[in-house]
Specification:
Layout (H helix, E strand, L loop, with lengths): L3 E3 L11 E3 L4 E2 L8 E7 L6 H18 L9 E7 L2 H4 L3 H6 L5 E5 L2 H10 L4 E3 L10 E3 L3 E4 L5 E5 L5 H15 L2
Parallel strand pairs: 4-5, 5-6
Antiparallel strand pairs: 1-10, 2-3, 2-6, 4-9, 7-8, 9-10
Length: about 180
């Protein structure tokens, strides 16, 4: 599997309505003017989510550490919590562990599915057992959204920092609005 896959003929992200960890509306316009990396996950994920977010934190730090900014647009990481029943209350604390530019969002299942579909991702909440526990399955890749809110690439972990920054340099040069 390739680490970085550029989307040919990218589409504008469709409308959706989610909420941030601070209970503010989060919509398509919140992608405008930023390079965004979207991660679907859940706050009680034992391995994939913290690994991917930690990897993206390292990439974000390198993005900022470059002598010359990679883009006139800042980078934001959007963590979309797909288990609103368990995630909503702890989302704010969870995303703080991964950097100041990480925005935690969630919403109702219908809006989360709409958003996941628009970004090429998927998730599924399992059936609850007698103790009320259930599993959550989700895409492991991240989606790159351009500053004009187009889905333009997928990133497949693990992401080597230096090579991922080079991928972004190429991507930015070919797509900046």
């Amino acid at each position: 599997m390739e680490k970085w896959v550029k989307v040919e003929n990218p589409d504008q992200l469709s409308e959706f309505s989610l909420r941030t960890a601070n209970d503010r509306p989060f919509r398509r316009d919140d992608f405008m003017g930023h390079w965004s990396i979207v991660v679907l996950g859940y706050t009680s994920c034992p391995d994939v989510c913290p690994f991917v977010l930690g990897n993206l934190r390292a990439i974000s730090r390198e993005w900022l550490a470059q002598g010359k900014p990679l883009s006139r647009f800042p980078l934001q990481i959007i963590f979309v919590a797909v288990d609103p029943g368990r995630d909503t209350k702890r989302l704010s604390d969870y995303v703080q562990h991964f950097g100041d530019n990480v925005v935690g969002v969630t919403g109702d299942i219908v809006q989360l599915q709409r958003f996941a579909n628009a970004t090429g991702g998927a998730f599924e909440l399992g059936k609850a057992n007698t103790h009320g526990d259930y599993s959550v399955k989700h895409s492991a890749f991240s989606t790159v959204i351009s500053p004009d809110a187009k889905v333009i690439a997928q990133l497949n972990p693990p992401l080597p920092v230096t090579e991922t920054i080079q991928f972004f340099r190429t991507l930015i040069a070919s797509t900046t609005p």
